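Good day; I would like, with your permission, to put a structural problem before you. A protein sequence and the structure tokens that stand for its backbone fold form the material at issue. Thank you for your consideration; the sequence and its tokens are set out here:
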Amino acid sequence: MCSACGFPAAPGHWTEAGAATAPERLRARFRRAQVLQAVLPAYGLTASDGMQVQGIQVSTLSGSHAIVRDLEEVWATAERMSGRPVDPLDPRFIGGEDRGGEDGEG
């Protein structure tokens, strides 16, 4: 159990699969934080991973916040805090709007 955050020690997150070394795992955490910072502002939320403790902080613009363990908890917490469904696969977050059409036309 981490004395700073209260979360049990975890072996790593599934999104870090293939990251064999500590620097690779750290890069994976930075990349995950970048993705969250791109998605959550559309819902009036921010996310940060200070890299100091296990967990991701999800915050509202009014200052409410929660520390969560993983991406599954990020989405559930974001929905609870924003009061609306959060879809991380929304085309505007994965580049669907600027691709033209699915078939390459447009």
In short: Confidence is low (pLDDT under 50) at residues 98-106. The longest helix spans residues 22-39. The beta strands are 45-48, 56-60, 65-68.
